[in-house]
Design brief:
By secondary structure, the chain is of the alpha+beta class. The protein has 4 helices and 10 strands. Strands 1, 2, 3, 4 and 5 form a 5-stranded antiparallel sheet that branches. Strands 8-9-10 form a 3-stranded mixed sheet. Strands 6-7 form a two-stranded antiparallel sheet. It has helices at 59-65, 104-112, 149-163, 189-209; strands at 21-24, 37-42, 66-67, 70-79, 85-90, 95-97, 100-102, 117-126, 132-140, 172-175. The mean pLDDT is 89. Helix content is 25%, strand content 27%. Strand 9, helix 3 (149-163) and strand 10 form a beta-alpha-beta unit.
Length: 210
């Protein structure tokens, strides 16, 4: 964020000089303000000097990232009327539920505003109808560990409905002691998502077999 421009809480700001960004739809058409899509870097009339040329010894990844006149960052975002950009989430983290594309960061941010929540991670979870639903893994602050978990689940769901949007609240909440993280302290949503889908699919198969 430039020091000389107005700040917008929650926005990732504007691109640096020499960097041209675009929000693209699935067919790589540029989208206007307020439309969520793929955050991309324009390569023409010239690519940013700091942009890498290729993935080393990985042509498949290179071809997937460089499409026509754009470099696809792998992030989803949107811009507003003043050309401020707003991060939604990584493409592979986005949860497609009931026709909505839900970014986990917004749900996690809403949960974080509740005094009971120490940290959280939000991922997709399958349901019996074959669609995705929102699930939150929550680590509670120690002062709240003794409270009834069913009531706490309801309280957190209502909290997210009020802070974010009703359709974004986590249908499932699992209270855990800790979250899997990388050596740099970043939460590994991918590991949680893989575990969740594997366990739920296993439960569903057992239920059908029985």
């Amino acid at each position: 964020m430039y020091r000389c421009i107005k700040r917008k809480p929650g926005s990732i700001g504007k691109p640096l000089p020499g960097v041209q960004l675009a929000i693209l739809d699935p067919y790589y058409n540029e989208l206007g303000p307020g439309k969520e899509g793929i955050l991309s870097v324009k390569l023409k009339p010239h690519a940013p000097l700091s942009l890498f040329k290729e993935y080393l010894n990985n042509q498949k990844e290179t071809d997937a990232a460089f499409r026509g006149d754009y470099y696809l960052t792998g992030d989803r975002a949107y811009k507003d009327e003043e050309e401020y950009y707003w991060f939604v989430g990584r493409n592979d983290d986005i949860i497609l539920s009931s026709g909505y594309a839900i970014g986990p960061c917004e749900v996690e941010s809403a949960l974080q505003e509740h005094p009971a929540v120490l940290e959280s991670a939000v991922v997709s979870s399958p349901d019996p109808q074959g669609i995705e639903t929102v699930k939150a893994f929550v680590v509670l602050n120690k002062e709240y560990l003794h409270l009834d978990k069913n009531q706490m689940t309801t309280d957190l769901q209502d909290h997210v409905k009020n802070i974010a949007s009703p359709y974004k609240y986590p249908r499932k909440i699992e209270f855990v002691d800790k979250l899997p993280k990388t050596v740099t302290g970043k939460v590994q949503r991918k590991a949680l998502r893989k575990r969740e889908w594997s366990e739920v699919k296993k439960e569903q198969n057992i239920s059908v077999a029985s």
